Amino acid sequence: MSGLDGSGSPLREIPEATVARLPMYLRALNALADGSRLVCSSDELAAAAGVNAAKLRKDLSYLGSYGTRGVGYDVELLRFHIAREIGITQDWSVVIVGAGHLGQALAGFSGFTSRGFEIVALLDADPALAGQQIAGVPIHDFADMPAIVAERRVTIGVIAVPAAAAQQVTDDLVAAGVTSILNFAPAVLSVPAGVDVRKVDLSSELQILAYHESRKGAASDAGTEATA
Amino acid sequence: MSGLDGSGSPLREIPEATVARLPMYLRALNALADGSRLVCSSDELAAAAGVNAAKLRKDLSYLGSYGTRGVGYDVELLRFHIAREIGITQDWSVVIVGAGHLGQALAGFSGFTSRGFEIVALLDADPALAGQQIAGVPIHDFADMPAIVAERRVTIGVIAVPAAAAQQVTDDLVAAGVTSILNFAPAVLSVPAGVDVRKVDLSSELQILAYHESRKGAASDAGTEATA
DNA sequence: TAGATTGTTAATCGATTAACAATC
DNA sequence: TAGATTGTTAATCGATTAACAATC
User: Fold this and answer.
1) Would you say the C-beta of B208 is within 7 Å of strand D?
2) What contacts B160, CB < 8 A, 6 or more positions away?
């Protein structure tokens, strides 16, 4: 157990909370690089990513020592190391299941391509849609999914179908070899060990906002509870 | 400080992690109620929500004691108490800014209505779209936003515009009185104290999956690191 | 009463933060 | 050398979990 971390190999154990923030740092670095900044301090980068500097430095320390004391971080170098740590120095092939509004919106989202992903197909149970393209992404019959997954070495699937269909789609994707799933359907998915699922739940997000919103209203009645 | 929690008033301090799970419990209870279950145990509910039973009981204990030892939870009663705690016993008015693919997908998502929200308008900077409807939601010129927010008492806004426009839209929403924002644009938003922002970042989600996916591949080389 | 299941305790674990020594 | 800024330490805080007494 526990990697005997040798040279610069990216196999240290990184806390999950840190992993979830690496994409934010990468985005902030990309913005800085666009502005042709060569070097930045932890304060600047933290501000650009919307976190505090202590947390940023602690997070980056898990990756290794890529800053220079008294100077800051080399933007390009740090960008490379984070991208390598995340594993997006090469693109990952992704399929989106469900060519409804949401699936089409996702396929059309240009951000994926530049951030390490290639959407190789939109899949839909309606064979009438097959042959069309959305923003350059071909729509295929869901029946062709196993062939596409095998041929394009797809390991990540995005679920944009109604909740009622989500578990079956998941089972099919997993059977075809997909081992990571991003789920937009409001449903709890069961998957075998070794398969990762992340979910994006739109009404949950709104409900969490509503929870805090409810208490805000109350604050104007009672004491002054503002500015947090 | 710290509420002197009287009768059953929903003003105890609830941990943020618990708040984020209440919507999951509510969804699971709705599913059970549809199946006409009157009572359920913490084990059943936890399984339906995809969490472990200890965590569920701990979470529910923050709301009060709404279960019966030896019996379980009354589905309808618990549903009411969670909905009240979240603050969705009445509907919240919501505007979606950006009538592109994503905005249209969100407007068409039927789940919001039944979960405590009414989408009162889609707003877009392109006045040519105004007058159209998407799934019953009218599209308005963004210039009309302040009037709509005031008239419909909107406190929650959803941002589905390109990253470059997100901060300006945020500033305008906040100026109009919106105090909770759900942000789909890949951008860090600054808001004044008292305004809550939650973000849904699609490429971050994929990158987090990619991180774990990278290590899976490596596991087949080295020792047996499967089943987690 | 016996069986079942909650609500709570206490231990553990992981994440955050401030402070500062190391060092460019 | 003096000033700046990282990387790390240690303290604190919050979340998770298992176990079990309370109680239906």
Assistant:
1) no
2) B96, B97, B98, B100, B102, B103, B106, B184, B185
User: Helices B202-219 and A75-86: crossing angle, nearest 10°?
Assistant: 60
The answer to whether A20 touches A55, Cβ cutoff 8 Å, is: no
Least confident of A15-24, A126-135, A181-190, B1-10: B1-10
* CA atom of A39 to C1′ atom of C20, Å: 24
Ramachandran sector of residue A177 (left: φ over 0; alpha: ψ -120 to 50; beta: rest): left
- pLDDT score of B6: 36
Q: Quick check: helix, strand or coil at residue A64? A: coil
Question: Regarding beta strands B180-183 and B156-159, do their DSSP bridges make them parallel or antiparallel, or are they unpaired?
Answer: parallel
- The gap from C-alpha A81 to its chain's centroid, in whole angstroms, comes to 17
Instruction: State whether residue A173 sits within 8 Å of chain B by CB.
Output: no
Task: Tell whether pTM > 0.85.
Answer: yes
- Residue B113: count of CB within 10 angstroms of its CB: 13
Note the pLDDT tens digit of each residue in B181-222: 999 999 999 999 999 999 999 999 999 999 999 999 654 433
Q: Do B115 and A50 touch (CB under 8 A)?
A: no
Nucleotide nearest to A52 (CA to C1'): C17
Q: Give me the amino acid identity at A205.
A: E
Angle at which helix A16-34 crosses helix A75-86, to 10 degrees, equals 140
Overall average pLDDT of the B46-62 stretch: 97
Cβ-contact B141, B124 below 8 angstroms: yes
Structural element, H or E, at residue A208: helix A202-219
What sign does the CA torsion over A125, A129, A134, A139 have? positive
Q: Give me chain B's average pLDDT, please.
A: 90
Q: Alpha carbon of B143 to those of B121, B129, B137, B176: distances in Å?
A: 12, 13, 17, 11
- DSSP, res A70: T
Residue of A nearest to B47 (CA): A188
Tell me how far apart the 2 most distant CA atoms of chain A are, in Å.
63
Q: Write the Ramachandran bin of B2: left for phi over 0, alpha for psi from -120 to 50, otherwise beta.
A: left
Q: Do B151 and A185 touch, CB atoms closer than 8 A?
A: no
User: Do B206 and A117 contact (CB within 8 A), yes or no?
Assistant: yes
Coil/strand/helix, residue A27? helix
CA B147 to each of CA A217, B119, B177: distance values in angstroms, whole numbers, following the listed order: 21, 15, 11
Tokens of A147: 């062939």
Residue A10 has pLDDT above 70, yes or no: no
